[in-house]
């Protein structure tokens, strides 16, 4: 029963726990933790072994990471190499025209670092630049393109923590782009979903709608222009983007999108200028940290709301005597109320207070037998915490956000770990390929609040980074690396990461079970979205407690890994969501 479930104390060591009837997700069919074959030609979602491990959504990307690890590269080298391959094989989710966040564990120094490669708004953008613009119109526009951060992030990541040069790290991706990859159903479907807007840009139609239609499943898709772009980036370095010819072409594309003659779509031009690219920097930031059930959980600080929102929700759960799905949904609801009120890329975010135990206790106190009406009001993270303060303000649900991006995890033989979220925002970004360069541009600036919304922390401003939900997460058990985790899915990223942690650490599922289990997402909205299998199992019980559940066919596409021993790692990807992912290890046996 949902409401009477007790916490199951689970060591941070992966064991298949038999939960009988106690935990609500016990009915989830467990995934078999079988080791990956030595050189698989098919994706497998679970692999366990030694010498390093990776999980991504894509076999080519996972293979690239393993190849780098086998040659002596470290986890950061492998993460960048795999990320660059995803720019080829998952071009609608990631690529050099986008941005992302990395959380990195340096095993030697025993330190956690993050790198913020989030896109920035142009200097010409103000709080009212997006006001009144229909969201759908902004999605496919030059206006929504921020300064791409990915290239600067790769460069900073490799220089600071890697051993490879950018040129070396891009090699596997150049290879895949030049030789091609086999089109799968997901690539086909994502192309088909985008066909209506891709056809409106000459460059995009030429690349992704050859012969006027999506490339068929099973065909080999090559992107020689992207291969050349990566090659030249490797030769010339990041300045080629942030002040050189590639940057000029990005700016020209954003300001004058290559609209197909006869297209009737309104395409708003962008505000980007070369000066915006010139001043772009990937940034190292302090990670967020919370202590949860005796473990330390590190995440991404603003401009992402991932670390603060996952962290606050975990703190709230930690303050409750019993945790079931009702409590999971309520903790998420309250944490989202605070996220929406306080978190953005601006000075003065009360991060410490949001992640404090006192605040969490005050918020946890609101959770009772019945669902709190949503949108719930934000709390007061002011350092003055009563036993049970009932906030009186007005809460807001999250604004529209696209549902796609991608996430990968890598660990190496030294125990370094990376959790890396990369994105171009919508599936297909802004839909505009830079002519001759084989890369789509992002529409990340749609993550800003469009307004009018006085006081909203996420209104656009010159140089500002839109608030993200990306939540690459690392967990340590008494200082030892335990877990790396993340997902795509816009604001459902936060709930997917949170639910997987709840499944793993509250309900005692194995990591493969925790990823496979059906999901629900409560983000301070009146209705809780849930996958069909979740509705089938839990709708009646949760409805009886005041939750209103509606269908969301698929939530998230997570990747994770867990140290099952000091040097044995289990890598886990989705078994079915988004076509399933690819987990690989360097060696199945010691
Ligand atoms: N733009 C989203 C964010 O930063 C990520 C892309 C997505 O998953 O929608 O939160």
Helix content: 25-40%
Tally of separate helices: 17
User: What is the name of the CATH superfamily?
Assistant: Gamma-glutamyltranspeptidase, small (S) subunit
CATH architecture annotation name: 4-Layer Sandwich
Radius of gyration: 22 Å
Look up the CATH topology.
Answer: Glutamine Phosphoribosylpyrophosphate, subunit 1, domain 1
| Uncertain runs | 1-39
Total E-strand runs: 20
Strand content: 15-25%
- Major sheet characteristics: 13 strands, antiparallel
Count of the separate structural domains? 1
Give the bound compounds.
Answer: glutamic acid
Mean pLDDT: 92
CA-to-CA gap between the ends?
Answer: 41 Å
CATH level 1 class label: Alpha Beta
**SS class:** alpha+beta
Backbone shape:
globular
Biased composition (Low complexity): 375-387
Family: Belongs to the gamma-glutamyltransferase family.
EC number: 2.3.2.2, 3.4.19.13
Organism: Nonomuraea glycinis
Note the topology.
Layout lengths: L45 E11 L2 H12 L4 H15 L9 E8 L4 E7 L17 H5 L10 H12 L4 H14 L1 E2 L2 H14 L3 H7 L11 E2 L2 H13 L8 H11 L18 H5 L4 E3 L2 E5 L2 E5 L6 H13 L6 H18 L8 H4 L2 H8 L41 E7 L4 E7 L9 E2 L4 E2 L32 E5 L2 E7 L5 H15 L4 H6 L3 E2 L5 E4 L1 H12 L4 E4 L7 E5 L5 E5 L8 E6 L3
Helix pairs in contact: 1-2, 1-5, 2-5, 5-8, 11-12, 11-14, 11-15
The structure holds glutamic acid.
